[in-house]
Amino acid sequence: MTLGIAACAGSEGEQRYPTEKPGGKSDPFGNSRAVTEPGIFGEGGLFSLGSGGDGGNGNGIGVNSFLWRASLDTTSFMPLASADPFGGVIITDWYTAPEAPAERFKMTIYILDTRLRADGVKVSVFKQQQTPDGTGWADAAVTPGTSAQLENAILIRARQLRIDTLAAEE
């Protein structure tokens, strides 16, 4: 076994993994954008959010960053159960409005594109009402058009974020 490992070394000497890229900045992952764009944990952090100048697709997330942020802003009043920026799925937990304690809502938001488009977001809304005996919850019909209204609210917010970003770049 030792001979097999020694034979792999070859006569060219020891191979070393590059720790610096041509610009001189250290980047062990070989990603030139990770060092220059801010991420969640600072420059080169967990994933780069991008400035939106690249069409808003955010270089580290798999979906349009404006739609992503707008979706989180629009649903910020609801508790968040799960958020996957790479797959583009946001799932809220059940939310009960103080003015209607006998019903609760839950949403799943899908960001479907890397571009800011009207068909780039889909919202599914779920509603439950308290059972007549008050011991549990039963599925109920959602008012028609609720999903479309939420999609429109997300799109309006995404456009505002994009306009704000473009104005800040000028």
From TrEMBL:
Q: Which organism is it from?
A: Pyruvatibacter mobilis
One Pfam family name is DUF3576
Indicate, by first and last residue, each region the UniProt record lists as having compositional bias (Basic and acidic residues): 13-24
Q: What is this protein called?
A: DUF3576 domain-containing protein
Q: Where is this region: Disordered?
A: 9-34
Q: Please, which domain of life does this record's source organism belong to?
A: Bacteria
